[in-house]
Design brief:
Helix content is about 60%, strand content about 5%. By secondary structure, the protein is mainly α. Strands 1-3-2 form a 3-stranded antiparallel sheet.
Length: about 160
């Protein structure tokens, strides 16, 4: 799959600094690089993200709807991913302790082992990318991305209410 656009080394004019284009291009490049690097593990980026959340939220009652929200995804997509992961023995569904109509998701031992392998790949990729910035730039970038993410989510919520 080809990237959505070619981004110049350093944007020279305003038309090359369009926020949605840069954000999408950055995400696309990161996702494709990660996809290539974790493919030997038999994982996709979305499956890794499921394992990461279930590992980080271990001991909490995480439903598929909770996972969809954590992953900024929808329930149908999460159901499809979980079905494949359950077949592989990486996660399991069990009755939710507070809501008998719901199922909670639990990371299995095989999923936990796979998560740690994927985490090593993810950390190496993050280090590679973030090393293009100075320490001060990294901190500033992460702070800005947090603010942009919050603004995007606030805008989404306001659009839903409108």
């Amino acid at each position: 799959m080809n990237p959505p656009s070619q981004i110049p080394e350093s944007p020279a004019n305003a038309s090359q600094k369009r926020f949605p284009l840069l954000l999408r291009s950055a995400w696309f490049g990161l996702n494709q690089s990660f996809r290539i690097r974790i493919k030997p593990l038999g994982l996709t980026p979305d499956q890794f993200t499921v394992l990461r959340w279930l590992h980080e939220k271990k001991g909490e009652c995480i439903r598929q709807s909770d996972l969809a929200q954590l992953m900024s995804s929808d329930n149908n997509t999460i159901t499809s991913i979980i079905n494949r992961m359950e077949t592989n023995g990486w996660v399991k569904r069990s009755p939710h302790i507070h809501d008998q109509r719901a199922k909670q998701l639990i990371i299995e031992e095989a999923g936990e082992a796979l998560y740690f392998k994927g985490q090593a790949v993810a950390q190496a990729l993050e280090d590679e990318i973030m090393n293009s910035l100075s320490e001060a730039e990294r901190l500033m970038y992460l702070e800005f991305m947090h603010k942009v993410t919050r603004a995007c989510l606030d805008s989404r919520d306001a659009s839903r209410r409108a």
